[in-house]
Amino acid sequence: MEPVSKYTLSVTVPDRDCDFKDQLRLSALFGYLQDIAALHAKNLGASVDKLKESFDVAWILMRLRVDILRMPKRYEVLTVETWPQKPATLYERDYLIKNENGEVLVKGVSVWILMNLVKREIVKETLLDYSHIRITEERAIDCRLGKIRSDAELLPALEKKIEYSDLDRNQHVNNTKYMDYAMDSIGAAGLETQDVKQVEVNYVNETKLGETIIISKGVSVSEKNTFYIEGTIAEDGRSAFKSKITVA
């Protein structure tokens, strides 16, 4: 397949990706974004395997925001689109999810880095050349992703020991799994009459097999219907992720 500026993928929402309201689970939604980002990177000659072989580096997702106009439903046919911004030390990527009529259901923006797998350091020079495609300045969401700073009192909501089913091919917790932990901390009762409308996540430190992650939750003082949820690694107190989830 020739390199393309914007990559598209058709997805029919299966039962296994839905919650008790027949809507797409947040973790499954994040999975769709992760999958299409990997497919487009491969299309552009920057797949996980090629980067490891050529430079000993890997893609690491640092920040992500999604705005949900309407959560996709069971058996709905979706078109997922993604495109990169101009490469720099930080690699930004945008997303749209549309229904069969072309109506935008979900918008997303993300920030990735390349990490040296030996030194475990961010690669600061620009390794990738996208001159073979037309880079668009179009943005799915007009925003700049930064560090999430909570104005809520965070209290422990649950603990999760990391097991086999939490791990991905890099042998740490996949970014999508953190959304399951976050939603579990809110609970089904809190979502019976409300839907997730906006999510912002900072991925801070990886969590590995056997470690325990403590999920803390608080309600925003200044923003209506907004939860701040943070995962902390129990063994050393490091932050694994920070998130802000708005419902309505």
Q: Compute the separation of the termini in Å.
A: 41 Å
The shape, in one word, is: globular
Helical percent range?
10-25%
CATH superfamily of the largest domain: Hotdog Thioesterase
**Mind telling me the C-alpha Rg?**
18 Å
Structural class: alpha+beta
CATH topology of the largest domain: Thiol Ester Dehydrase, Chain A
Q: Can you tell me the number of structural domains?
A: 2
What quaternary form is this? single chain
Q: What would the average pLDDT be, to the nearest integer?
A: 96
Number of strands: 11
Low-confidence stretches: none
Structure annotation, total helices: 3
Q: Sketch the topology as an H/E string, one letter per element.
A: EHHEEEEEEHEEEE
CATH architecture of the largest domain: Roll
Largest sheet: 11 strands, antiparallel
Please identify the top-level CATH class of the largest domain: Alpha Beta
Beta strand %: 35-45%
Describe what this molecule looks like in 3D.
It is a single chain. This protein is globular. It is of the alpha+beta class and 248 residues long. It folds into 2 domains: 7-122, Hotdog Thioesterase (Thiol Ester Dehydrase, Chain A), CATH 3.10.129; 155-247, Thiol Ester Dehydrase, Chain A, CATH 3.10.129. Strands 1, 2, 3, 4, 5, 6, 7, 8, 9, 10 and 11 form an 11-stranded antiparallel sheet that branches. The longest helix is centred in the N-terminal third of the chain and has 18 residues, at 26-43. The chain contains 3 helices and 11 strands; from the N terminus they run βααββββββαββββ.
